[in-house]
Amino acid sequence: MVRCWRLGNFLRETSGSPLIEKLSFLLPFFVITVDIVLIEHALRINEHYIIVLTTLLFFLSLIEIMVIMEEIRERRKESTLERTITIKLDKFMLRRDLKNVKNVVQEFIKSHPEYNKNRSKVYHIACQIIENKKEN
Prior knowledge:
mainly alpha; single chain
């Protein structure tokens, strides 16, 4: 299945997306199906203005599908990044005994400079981890 790796990635991303995104994916496909029927009918009866308008609607539906796919991909990438940061930060905090969030974030960024541009996420996740440890 080497040829279908993009389709496999897309299906994994879509299966992990929220239900509302999955449902928003159905409407453009329905519109495209109706457009194909309308374009076929307009070609048979040779109505040029209907052909132009349905073709425009067809392309708008294709653009909407691409936007939804990109949104799903970005959301998946963001959740994967947050999960990775959470795992690494939790392990980091177990090894070090830092109680101050600012110190935790600074030390974590020093040891993992690849997360420097995600400092606000690291801060937020560190606050959540410290809050969970206080509750336990």
